[in-house]
């Protein structure tokens, strides 16, 4: 195949032959360069100007995904895939279907070979095998070293000094580039036994006092921004004053140990007892105790407060096995750019604090401490859950470009904040924010949102150690209303159960948790819990406007029972002499299809309805929303889903019930465009989506769109995505 000529010209011929052989509109070959960057080396069908210019990091986009996992990918509908990374310079927008295979040699990925088709096409196993066979030929060509000098990719014996890429899990998005600082190792204890227990007890007392003052200072600092991390440090204070813990340390000192050795011994005992525990919540508490222990040891050694303040670089990425949230706050947050953890989970407290600090975090990065030396240059890619250590110039450049593009888009979208959310034909669309943490609230003003369309009350419950009492809940809700400053806030009552577990709630081991005891079902079976939450909401909103929404309602009678509990609490408010909310609106989430068939009975009782499209899709198609095997199998833009949504718009309009949609669908421009076509005029979304969605809204003529969508709904297609994309292209809608 394609013998003779330079390696580059042979590669050019190969891609041409593959495209002809497989009837593809595009065939492209990406070759691996140093620093794990895939460079477009040859193409037929994409823009030739992009050759040797387009570069993708391993893990980035579909091509990067193939290289990262050394496995083929075949997609009939590539643009809707979450890993799809659009590169405008390649001109690849019209291509729907994508199939790519790794170019493997000697067990290593040397590149990626991909084909694309304009028309939707399902590739079969034979197609994949054919491309894999051709990739073997290309692998030989790459191995000659004529395309990329083999020395560029040579792995030296001293692997540690080479650039490397480590896989982890994204715990917070964003990109950071800076020098690495390794979290200080635990102090070593030099002297184990002491002659004078009284002296040791006094040292312990002083160290505990000084630790308390330091924690109090942290509390004051964290209080300036408020939020959940403040609560977390509060629980630290609780640990630090735990009498059982301190008295066990004192006992150990009385047996003749130094204060340090006693602290360590108690910690070792705790660890031994916890060793067999697999419960993630308890393990997380163990981490808090480790943090407190280290902290106390620091104070005993006379070291306190900010970690190595004087010697830290001006900008740094912190690398640690794991970290307590208060430990993270010990570092100067103005210089801290990112965080990499060997362990760490999405709902760990340190991740929550890192989110509050708005720094990218990659967790579960196995072996990271062995691969990074202090002051190594690292890139934390929180968007893709990967870390680059001592990256090559190419990759640094590629990231700088990503950062630049991201900044540019941010500027563009920030500018859109001041613009009205109105379609080209003058239809106003209300844009609301989805929130769940106090730290989300500044987005309300930054985005210019009209209000909070969904406040997920369960999130503050999930980060706490114990069930928050009514007073604590009231305080949180009041803060939300204060921050909203008169803009409407829709509070959804506790939506736990299923995948959202509370640390202090029994694990029921349900076989089908998504279909199990969750949300309003728990609220109605444990009415005291629901009552307390409603009471807290009513107190918080005394004299102000309040919107309450019940999740996962499957029967009108469930809504009516919940409503009765709310009415009881309203009467109790009168008895307590507390003013009622100025205006109270009550609504439901539309998530369970059974409710679609009870609209006649339901609509007269509700003030508003919000469609939870994440759950509605999973129940409508009986397709688990968290199962990667079913990813993209059923489409939100299917005739079934869109017909349901359009029907809801009509019915709610007729009944005078406000309707909105608060699932992820509202955050994606094409899906949101379809919602406008269905008649939705209120969308609630994550803060990052505002710019794009508003840009889309301002470029669409909704009247034309609505008529177009009407004509499509009767089609037998599994999805109308391509038709809607074509509409957007033909009508200049900016997606
Ligand atoms: C939904 O189901 O679409 C929704 C907004 O609720 P959650 O994602 O919290 O289940
Ligand atoms: Mg839901």
From TrEMBL:
<keyword id="KW-0418">Kinase</keyword>
<dbReference type="InterPro" id="IPR050499">
    <property type="entry name" value="PEP-utilizing_PTS_enzyme"/>
</dbReference>
<dbReference type="InterPro" id="IPR036637">
    <property type="entry name" value="Phosphohistidine_dom_sf"/>
</dbReference>
<dbReference type="GO" id="GO:0005737">
    <property type="term" value="C:cytoplasm"/>
</dbReference>
<dbReference type="GO" id="GO:0008965">
    <property type="term" value="F:phosphoenolpyruvate-protein phosphotransferase activity"/>
</dbReference>
<feature type="domain" description="GAF">
    <location>
        <begin position="6"/>
        <end position="152"/>
    </location>
</feature>
<dbReference type="InterPro" id="IPR003018">
    <property type="entry name" value="GAF"/>
</dbReference>
<keyword id="KW-0670">Pyruvate</keyword>
<dbReference type="InterPro" id="IPR008279">
    <property type="entry name" value="PEP-util_enz_mobile_dom"/>
</dbReference>
<dbReference type="GO" id="GO:0016301">
    <property type="term" value="F:kinase activity"/>
</dbReference>
<keyword id="KW-0460">Magnesium</keyword>
<dbReference type="Pfam" id="PF00391">
    <property type="entry name" value="PEP-utilizers"/>
</dbReference>
<dbReference type="Pfam" id="PF05524">
    <property type="entry name" value="PEP-utilisers_N"/>
</dbReference>
<protein>
    <recommendedName>
        <fullName>phosphoenolpyruvate--protein phosphotransferase</fullName>
        <ecNumber>2.7.3.9</ecNumber>
    </recommendedName>
</protein>
<dbReference type="InterPro" id="IPR000121">
    <property type="entry name" value="PEP_util_C"/>
</dbReference>
<dbReference type="InterPro" id="IPR036618">
    <property type="entry name" value="PtsI_HPr-bd_sf"/>
</dbReference>
<keyword id="KW-0813">Transport</keyword>
<dbReference type="InterPro" id="IPR006318">
    <property type="entry name" value="PTS_EI-like"/>
</dbReference>
<dbReference type="Pfam" id="PF13185">
    <property type="entry name" value="GAF_2"/>
</dbReference>
<dbReference type="InterPro" id="IPR008731">
    <property type="entry name" value="PTS_EIN"/>
</dbReference>
<comment type="similarity">
    <text>Belongs to the PEP-utilizing enzyme family.</text>
</comment>
<dbReference type="InterPro" id="IPR029016">
    <property type="entry name" value="GAF-like_dom_sf"/>
</dbReference>
<dbReference type="GO" id="GO:0046872">
    <property type="term" value="F:metal ion binding"/>
</dbReference>
<dbReference type="InterPro" id="IPR023151">
    <property type="entry name" value="PEP_util_CS"/>
</dbReference>
<keyword id="KW-0808">Transferase</keyword>
<keyword id="KW-0762">Sugar transport</keyword>
<keyword id="KW-0479">Metal-binding</keyword>
<keyword id="KW-0598">Phosphotransferase system</keyword>
<dbReference type="GO" id="GO:0009401">
    <property type="term" value="P:phosphoenolpyruvate-dependent sugar phosphotransferase system"/>
</dbReference>
<dbReference type="InterPro" id="IPR015813">
    <property type="entry name" value="Pyrv/PenolPyrv_kinase-like_dom"/>
</dbReference>
<dbReference type="Pfam" id="PF02896">
    <property type="entry name" value="PEP-utilizers_C"/>
</dbReference>
<keyword id="KW-0963">Cytoplasm</keyword>
<dbReference type="InterPro" id="IPR040442">
    <property type="entry name" value="Pyrv_kinase-like_dom_sf"/>
</dbReference>
